[in-house]
């Protein structure tokens, strides 16, 4: 079995190499730089192929895999003193490095306990208090930080498991959770499909206290994340090949979950809405007509009508910056909706983007100018 696992691992690595051969040939000798999200997922697959397959097949809409990478080793040392006392170091570890401007963007957008004492009337939504902990059944889920806008959400959670639980830094944990849209959004979008896609990364397990773990949840949604609710359902730990121990579980998925409400209008002042209605793009026999678009430092959301046979077209989305460079969005596009009410596309950026330096959105070959708000220009 070990020999087979080794061969499978090598085969997967060879497949990755073959898949990206053209990319490497165009790299002009530079080292390939795959996205942090891709690397985390690949590490999870290579570390435990059977467990990875099990996670895809079993309850795929609820399950989120806790992945590990270089960020974990860095973040554990940062979080060992106190989880609430970190900001930039935590995000630096999670995103795989941030420059000074990207750190400033996060500082302006995130909700954290460090901003809880601000009471000035000019406070932005990102400076409101964090939601309270969700506690029942001997389990406490405490939000430490919230970073989000429009279609993208990052949520740092401290999970205190029942007394007697002992976590270890090398635990293989499986986290079940999901984001749900607000009742306001549902009322304003009757009949529209709502979906999200994401995962979780463990930053600490058993270092602060034996029964405490800290994770970062990331979600890309087809709906406005502001005003929604993040629901925690279950936490498992792998104890042997194909054997899992339940740390805790909601008694009922609808009423027994640990719920974290997300503030409404989350960083709405950081979102640009370019005039796109009626813009058309044609790909072969597909014709896409834009209805609306929102661009935040974290991602892009757009709504469109489609004529053609492919119900889920994937398009290239990027930002053209004032210096002529391009920042490409993650190719993992989330597409939801139907032909009646319209389809939506959502993508995320690998790292927060300074929109004050962006001049246009590139929707495949269509150039969409961005008009900056006065706040972003300053």
Number of strands: 20
Tally of structural domains = 2
The biggest sheet amounts to: 11 strands, mixed
- The CATH homologous superfamily name of the largest domain equals bacillus anthracis domain
| Proportion of strand residues | 35-45%
Please compute the radius of gyration using only Cα atoms: 21 Å
CATH architecture level-2 label of the largest domain:
Sandwich
What is the CATH topology descriptor of the largest domain? Immunoglobulin-like
Question: Overall 3D geometry?
Answer: globular
Q: What's the end-to-end separation, in Å?
A: 60 Å
Estimated helix fraction: 10-25%
Structural class given helices, strands, pairing?
alpha+beta
| Helix-strand sequence | HHHHEHHHEEEEEHEEEEEEEEEEEEEEH
Number of helical runs? Answer: 9
Oligomer: single chain
Helix-strand blueprint:
Blueprint: H1 2-19, H2 21-25, H3 36-47, H4 49-57, E1 63-67, H5 70-79, H6 88-95, H7 100-109, E2 111-112, E3 134-136, E4 139-149, E5 152-160, E6 173-180, H8 183-188, E7 196-205, E8 212-221, E9 229-240, E10 243-249, E11 258-261, E12 280-283, E13 286-296, E14 299-307, E15 317-321, E16 326-328, E17 334-338, E18 342-348, E19 358-363, E20 366-369, H9 374-377
Parallel strand pairs: 1-7
Antiparallel strand pairs: 1-6, 2-4, 3-4, 4-5, 5-8, 6-9, 7-8, 9-10, 9-11, 12-13, 13-14, 14-18, 15-16, 15-19, 17-18, 19-20
Question: What does this molecule look like?
Answer:
With 378 residues, the protein is an alpha+beta fold. It is globular, with a radius of gyration of 21 Å. The C terminus is likely disordered.
């Amino acid at each position: 079995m070990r020999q087979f696992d080794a061969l499978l691992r090598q085969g997967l690595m060879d497949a990755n190499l073959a898949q990206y051969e053209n990319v490497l040939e165009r790299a002009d000798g530079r080292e390939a730089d795959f996205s942090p999200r891709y690397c985390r997922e690949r590490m999870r697959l290579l570390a435990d192929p059977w467990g990875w397959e099990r996670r895809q097949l079993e309850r795929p809409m609820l399950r989120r895999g806790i992945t590990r990478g270089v960020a974990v080793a860095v973040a554990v040392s940062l979080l060992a003193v106190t989880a609430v006392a970190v900001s930039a170091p935590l995000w630096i570890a999670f995103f795989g490095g941030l420059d000074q401007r990207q750190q400033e963007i996060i500082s302006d957008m995130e909700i954290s306990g460090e901003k809880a004492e601000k009471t000035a009337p000019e406070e932005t939504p990102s400076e409101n208090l964090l939601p309270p902990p969700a506690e029942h059944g001997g389990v406490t889920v405490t939000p430490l930080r919230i970073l989000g806008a429009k279609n993208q959400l990052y949520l740092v959670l401290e999970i205190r498991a029942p007394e007697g639980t002992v976590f270890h830094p090398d635990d293989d944990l499986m986290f079940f959770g999901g984001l749900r849209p607000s009742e306001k959004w549902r009322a304003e979008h009757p009949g529209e499909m709502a979906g999200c896609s994401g995962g979780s990364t463990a930053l600490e397990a058993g270092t602060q206290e034996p029964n405490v773990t800290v994770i970062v949840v990331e979600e890309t949604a087809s709906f406005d994340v502001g005003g929604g609710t993040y629901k925690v359902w279950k936490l498992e730990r792998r104890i042997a090949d194909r054997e899992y121990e339940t740390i805790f579980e909601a008694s009922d998925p609808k009423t027994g979950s640990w719920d974290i409400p997300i503030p409404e209008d989350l960083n709405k002042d950081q979102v640009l809405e370019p005039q796109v209605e009626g813009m058309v793009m044609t790909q072969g026999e597909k014709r896409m007509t834009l209805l609306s678009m929102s661009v935040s430092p974290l991602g892009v959301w757009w709504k469109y009508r489609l004529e053609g046979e492919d119900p889920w077209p994937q398009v290239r989305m990027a930002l053209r910056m004032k210096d002529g460079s391009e920042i490409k969005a993650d190719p993992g596009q989330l597409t939801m909706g139907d032909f009646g009410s319209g389809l939506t596309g959502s993508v995320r950026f690998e790292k927060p983007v300074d929109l004050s330096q962006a001049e246009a959105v590139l929707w495949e070959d269509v150039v969409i100018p961005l008009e900056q708000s006065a706040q972003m220009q300053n």
